[in-house]
Structures are given as structure tokens and as C-alpha cells.
Write a structure and sequence with these properties.
By secondary structure, this protein is an alpha/beta fold. Helix content is 44%, strand content 14%.
Length: 561
């Protein structure tokens, strides 16, 4: 029997109630107590499952080698090796001999190996993911489980998973899914960000205890408290279904002493567009275009990208739409691109570094699509470059933009001259903000990554969640330095990290001097209300005291958090 209340990190301040569908491990293991097991039959079932898994893996290997390449196909060799590992096989057979059903024995035997690999560094830790894949394949075969199709779930489903990747979350239909909860992940993991854009109740980082919740169980996902309630009573069910949220403010907002603050939405996928407009966004402050590249087998063409961006521009005819160029790498992997595995992907070829690869034309294609959309679309398009660390990188990106414009002129296509900006996500970009701002129209602070790099705390790792907190004075000083550098160079400065969407921090951010706040749609109404209740001069004075504090708790005392 699962514990009744499981604790994790609330990703969206909303609650939902529904019935559990496990994703990734599409099975519910039998409770072995009281189950009669015939060891001989179970060992035979296990051997059959191994044979079928091998056949499946060999044919997937062949298809991948043909479609993508030998390097990518190699992962299947590793899976076959794990499948045939004699230590695991012996362990399964011993456990079955001791009376466990085959699926439970597979789960336990693989579990031990997964734990060992998880304790190691770098590449070895990644082997844990390979083992999980093999385990899940065997469990599916042993339990006749079909892989759950995230895009076609029964209405009222609550998805439970070990983790959800950006491409998994891209498939979730907010009309049908009542929420999700995951074993791993933090507030700024992309699954959590996506949940906020759709106002989808979600709790992440619950830990292994989540695995005790059976498929089909009714649960309440409380993204406000960060809890998952198993088997709610009538009152709890009703409280979860009633929902919450501030009144929607459609007009643009200013502080009580007249400073206009642009409140915009972060979006990544078409499904996020309507919620953003309906919740009163003035425009889009961050369009994560990498989602256009996920869940397909080849990159989108220039025309497809043009159409996608046009749709966003036409949804905000009177607003500004900041389109970020491809930000792949880190946790955002695109299987069909031939990208080498990296030991430390968050410190590797991410963002602009990938785009500037001279052997790839992805960047040029995207820039042409953006320039065409800017000329034809209703709203004002702005282009923004991610993960810039050096002035050289920015100069390279600006050269590429000029080259794309020249290309289009050569084709006699109309070209616009959009605003251009840089994301401030690395400590180097903070120190170089003046030089960066002198070359562009705006800066936008990405606090998810900036906090990760300033504090040396992985944004996905709940164990360092207290350090990955943008209210540490070190991060506040980095934000203030960026704002000042931008304003000294007559550039506007926004924030599009998750910090911008926390209404408890709106006064602080206005006080630090931000001109624009861009966030997942769910809290736009609350942030707009908070801006209109803030006095800019008093907020600046309080923000100064907060950033000059020595500790996070002094910051919180100053801000009365
Ligand atoms: C950020 O890092 O704050 C950001 C907005 O970019 P992403 O979350 O997509 O990395
Ligand atoms: Mg980022």
C-alpha cells in the first residue's frame, strides 16, 4: 500500500485529480505476497521475453543504422549486452526460484545494477538509463504492456513517470491530462516549465516512493503544496477540482508611479499559444524554437519554421514576439542530429555554440525563416541568441544574421530589420554585459541557467535545489549588474527565466530595474496584478537592500518572503 501523501516540488500552483497512468514503465507489478508462482514457467517466460527483446533490439539497431548512422545504432549493442548479462540473468533466476514472479524478479535484479551505475560519474551514470530501457522492455513483454501513447491518453489521466523529457512533455494534451508527477526533476527542469505554460498541475522530484503508486489509482496532484495525495476522499477531491487563480488583466500594466513593465509569455509549442493569449500576455518574451525540432526525424524546413513563427506573430498582432534561436544541447537532445555524446552536456556545445558550427546549415535556415516571418507577420518579431558567453560569439551570430538577410535579398524576398537581443545565462555574459548590450537592442536574463552556472548547482538536481535558488544574493547582484550595463548602453532588459513568473518576487524584479518579465502563462494574471500594486521607487530601495544582504535568509527577511 502506497503512502497517502508523497512530497516533491510543486511545478505549477494548480491542483488536479485523476487516475494514474504510468509512463515509461507501462506495468504495475503484482504484489508477490499471496501469488502462486511456478518457477519453471516463470523462468521460461523470462527466457522468451529475452529472446523477443533481442529480436526487437536487433531490428531497431538495423533501422537506426540505416536511417541515422552506425554511431547512433551503437546504443542498441549496449542494450543487447545488458540483456545478455549473465549476472543479471542469474539474479533473476535465483529470485524466481525463491518464489518471485518473473516481472518482479526482473525489476529487482535490474534495480540493483541501476543503483550501482547511478552512484558513478559521467558516462557510467548514463549506463543507468540504458539499463532502465532494457528493464522496461522486458517488463513490457512480460506483462503484455503496450507502450503508453502520451498523445492519446484517456481523459482525466495523471501521468506518473521516472522523468519526462522535453519531447515526452511535448506530446501531452492539456485537454486530456489532469496533471503529472515524476520521480526526478526540479522546478526549472523543462517538464516543470512546460507544465506551468499550460497551467497543468505537476509535482516533480518526488523520489523513489512514487513508484509505489499503482496504475489506475485515483490521485490528487497538488502543484501548490508539492504533494501527490493517493486515494483522496470526497472533500479532498472537490478541493482539488475547484481550481484557483487571479483575475485576468488584458491591458498592459504599470507601477503606481508610472513605470511600464511588459508582461509576456514564454512558449515552446503551439498548444501553449492560446493559454498565453487568454491569460493576458502582452506578447511573447521567449519562444523556445527547439520544440519545433523535437519529435520528428528530420529538421523542419525553412517554410515550416516560417509558418510556425507566423502563427505566433499573428496571435499577438499588437505585441512583441521574442524568438530565441535553436537552443539544443544540455537536456534538450535531438536524436536525428548527429551530435556526439558529451561528458558534461550542460557545459558542452549548447545554444549558440552549436548554432555557430560551420558545418551545419541549421542556423542559417532558421535565420532566413525568422527574417521572412518578421517581414510578413502581424506582431513585432525580435531575435534572441541563447547561451552567449563571449562577444566573439555574438559577433559571429550577428554576421550570420547579416548573411541570411543578404541571401534573402538575393532571392528578392522581403526582409525585415528586427530587434536583436542576447540571453544572459552565463557568468561571463554578466561581466561582459556592457559590451554585449552595446551591440544589440536588448538583453534577457535566463535565470534558470544563470543560477545554475553562478551557483554551480544543476537545475535538474533536487539535491542541490536550495542552491539553485535565484534569491541568493550572488544571483541578485548578477541580475543588477546586467540591468545597469544594459541601461548604460540604452538597451532594454527583460527576464525570461522561471524567476520572472513568481508573483512573490515581482516587486524585487521591478526594483532591480527589469523592463520586461516573461513567464510560463499560468502566473501572468498574478504578476500583472503585483506590478500594478508596486511603487517603483520604494521597490528599488528594497531591492538594493536585498541584493546587498550577505545571505539568502537575510534576502528573504528583507523581502518578507
Ligand atoms: C533560462 O535558462 O533561464 C531560460 C529561459 O532558458 P531555458 O530554460 O530554455 O534553458
Ligand atoms: Mg537557458
Amino acid at each position: 500500500m502506497a503512502e497517502r501523501t508523497l512530497h516533491g516540488t510543486g511545478a505549477t500552483p494548480r491542483s488536479g485529480v485523476g487516475s494514474v497512468v504510468w509512463y515509461g514503465r507501462d506495468i504495475s507489478l503484482l504484489d508477490p505476497d499471496g501469488v502462486e508462482v511456478d518457477p519453471e514457467t516463470e523462468i521460461e517466460r523470462f527466457a522468451d521475453a529475452v529472446d523477443t527483446a533481442r529480436t526487437e533490439l536487433e531490428s531497431e539497431r538495423e533501422a537506426t543504422a540505416e536511417r541515422v548512422g552506425e554511431d547512433e545504432a551503437a546504443v542498441f549493442d549496449a542494450h543487447i549486452q545488458f540483456l545478455e548479462d549473465p549476472t543479471i540473468e542469474d539474479a533473476v533466476e535465483t529470485m524466481v526460484g525463491n518464489g518471485l514472479p518473473a516481472p518482479n524478479a526482473v525489476d529487482a535484479a535490474f534495480g540493483e545494477h541501476i543503483e550501482q551505475f547511478e552512484g558513478m560519474d559521467g558516462r557510467m551514470a548514463e549506463r543507468a538509463d540504458d539499463l532502465r530501457d532494457v528493464r522496461d522492455r522486458l517488463l513490457r513483454l512480460l506483462t503484455d504492456g503496450e507502450r503508453v501513447d502520451l498523445g492519446d491518453l484517456p481523459e482525466g489521466s495523471v501521468v506518473l513517470a521516472e522523468r519526462l523529457t522535453p519531447s515526452d512533455t511535448a506530446q501531452l494534451d492539456p485537454e486530456r491530462v489532469a496533471g503529472f508527477a515524476t520521480v526526478t526533476g526540479g522546478r526549472t527542469s523543462h517538464a516543470a516549465i512546460f507544465a506551468r505554460s499550460l497551467a497543468l498541475p505537476a509535482v516533480v522530484g518526488i523520489g523513489e516512493t512514487l513508484e509505489s503508486v499503482e496504475g489506475g489509482t485515483e490521485v490528487v496532484v497538488d502543484g501548490d503544496d508539492g504533494t501527490l495525495l493517493v486515494g483522496p476522499d470526497d472533500d479532498e477531491r472537490e478541493a482539488a477540482a475547484s481550481g484557483s487563480g487571479a483575475a485576468i488583466v488584458d491591458e498592459s500594466v504599470e507601477t503606481t508611479d508610472g513605470k511600464h513593465i511588459e508582461v509576456a509569455a514564454n512558449i515552446g509549442q503551439p498548444a501553449e499559444l492560446d493559454p498565453a493569449a487568454q491569460r493576458g500576455a502582452d506578447g511573447v518574451g521567449l519562444y523556445r524554437t527547439e520544440f519545433l525540432f523535437l519529435d520528428r526525424e528530420t529538421p523542419p524546413s525553412e517554410d515550416e519554421q516560417y509558418e510556425a513563427v507566423r502563427e505566433v506573430l499573428d496571435t499577438f498582432p499588437d505585441g512583441r514576439v521574442v524568438v530565441r534561436t535553436l537552443d539544443i544541447g544540455g537536456d534538450k537532445r535531438i536524436p536525428y542530429l548527429d551530435l556526439p555524446a558529451e561528458e558534461n552536456p550542460f557545459l558542452g556545445e549548447r545554444g549558440i555554440r552549436r548554432s555557430l558550427d560551420p558545418d551545419s546549415d541549421l542556423f542559417a535556415t532558421q535565420l532566413r525563416a525568422l527574417l521572412r516571418a518578421a517581414a510578413d507577420g502581424a506582431g513585432d518579431l525580435a531575435i534572441m541568441f541563447p547561451l552567449v558567453a563571449t562577444v566573439e560569439e555574438l559577433d559571429g551570430a550577428l554576421d550570420a544574421l547579416d548573411a541570411a538577410a543578404a541571401d534573402l535579398e538575393g532571392r528578392e524576398t522581403e526582409v525585415a530589420d528586427p530587434e536583436v537581443g542576447v540571453m544572459i545565462e552565463t557568468p561571463s555574459a554578466v561581466f561582459m554585459a556592457e559590451e554585449l548590450a552595446a551591440r544589440v537592442d536588448f538583453l534577457s536574463i535566463g535565470t534558470n541557467d544563470l543560477t545554475q552556472y553562478v551557483m554551480a548547482a544543476d537545475r535538474e538536481n533536487e539535491r542541490v535545489g536550495d542552491l539553485h535558488d535565484p534569491t541568493h544574493p550572488g544571483v541578485l547582484r548578477a541580475i543588477r549588474q546586467t540591468v545597469k550595463s544594459a541601461h548604460d548602453e540604452d538597451a532594454w532588459v527583460g527576464m525570461c527565466g522561471e524567476m520572472a513568473g513568481d508573483p512573490d518576487l515581482t516587486e524585487l524584479l521591478v526594483g532591480l530595474g527589469l523592463d520586461e518579465l516573461s513567464m510560463s502563462a499560468v502566473t501572468i494574471p498574478e504578476v500583472k496584478t503585483a506590478v500594478s500594486e508596486t511603487e517603483h521607487s520604494a521597490a528599488s530601495e528594497r531591492a538594493d537592500r536585498a541584493r546587498l544582504a550577505a545571505t539568502r535568509s537575510e534576502v528573504h527577511d528583507t523581502l518578507e518572503l
